[in-house]
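Our consortium's second objective concerns turning raw sequence data into structural hypotheses that experimental partners can test. To show how far this objective has progressed, the report includes one record in full. It was chosen at random from the queue rather than selected for favorable results. The single chain below, 487 residues long, was entered without modification.
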Amino acid sequence: MKRAAVVGAGIGGLTSALLLNRQGWDVTVYERGSRVGGRIAFEQEGEYRIDQGPTIVLLPEMLLGILEEAGVDRSKVELLRCDPLYRVHYHSGRVMTKKTDRAEQTAEIERLFPGEGRGFNRFMKDMDTLFPAGRAAFLEQMFPRKRDFFTPSLMSLMGKLRAHKSVRKAVGDYFEHEELLDAYSLQSLYIGGSPFGTPGIYSLLPYAEHEYGIWMVKGGYAALPAILEQELLSRGGKIKLNTEVTGLEIRNGICEGIETADDAEKVDAVIYNGDFPNLSGLMKQVPEAPVKRKPYRPSSGCVLIYAGVDKRWEDATTHQFFLPPSLDGSLRQVFNERRIPAKPSFYVFNPAAVDETAAPSGQSVLYFLIPVPDAEGVNWEQESEALAERVLEEAEERGFPGLRAALQWKKVRTPADAARDGLYGGGSFGIAPVLFQSGVYRPQPKPFSKIQGLYAAGASVHPGGGVPIVMQGARMAVNQLMKEMGK
């Protein structure tokens, strides 16, 4: 039986391990921390518990389909549909509700932005064709060589997907009003990119929201890693917690084993599921290691506020976005000037709106996400508390009356905390999804053509961030491994 080591028990590592285990491999997952899940975890205080990281489930069928392929029955993961999808609170006082049904969404756009409904219908109609093509060409293909990407058919598709433009400019071909441009380009924030710096291909995201819905995992996204852990262990896979991999043994262009502080293990293949830029540190003593490239740019960071509240808001949706007077200006302060914006945007997750069990009866758990720069150059200890207070005050004024008086528990997490946990640069989403870190320019599931037996998964690896997308990357890594090494 062939043996594989998976470095890191994040969602990419667990998915890889289950897929390999199902192919008959002997798999051991090594995790330096005390739990599985990576970015997917719970924050908890007494009766209050809420997701620490991802909250929005996009592309539910991709997630469930990959789990099924890995041998996890889809009935083990209960998804709850969020409809309306979410609300966008504009500084002007307008509130737009995003809906699944196209006719209802058209009517909502016409109510707020007369004459713009046609643009929405044109966007959806164009994407009905472009999304399946983009998914097959971009999300389900590796690009081991530049020439695999720069083919006439793929270049034609990239042109139609406006990859040469930013997301904001791409949706500008459909909408005119500034507030609509905000609503159909803010999705780049889901993967740590700016609307003006992320390629137009990511306009697939706002389409996917309407077409496939927005969901949440009952009990929280962080319930998922425990399900995968239990499944892997029940099938004879092994997970070694509190065990940091300190090196990879690479000889004559073949990855032959891993080293930990206490031991060394010979294996037939390694799948690395840490943040990809950290991989080179495990290979530094190896003459065959590739030449170092210029540093990757981290994604944006987040200041996160977790709160337990002795109150419920009956009319509040699960997901809500609160935008400043200028979203574009605010995000340019984050991404270009690398500072905390004077007037920040923020997202609120309110799981009790669809999951009655998310908080004690009559109470709520809330999660506030504020886009900020990565960890470098900001005194987070000094800045984060004042930022959190400003955001809680604004949330109370604009959507959650009585919030601060009802607060029972509050915790703030910053990019400095993320950096301490091993997230590259303190960015929350791996490397930034800018043009020259996307597609063929992003680390691939088979990252080094001259090193056999070494593969990669995770948010910094193609096809990118977001839980189902990371799982898809893990699937591609395992498929490539099986193609090259078989059983």
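The partners drew two points from this record. Residues 117-139 form the longest helix (23 residues). The chain has 14 helices and 19 strands. Both points have been shared with the crystallography group to help prioritize constructs.
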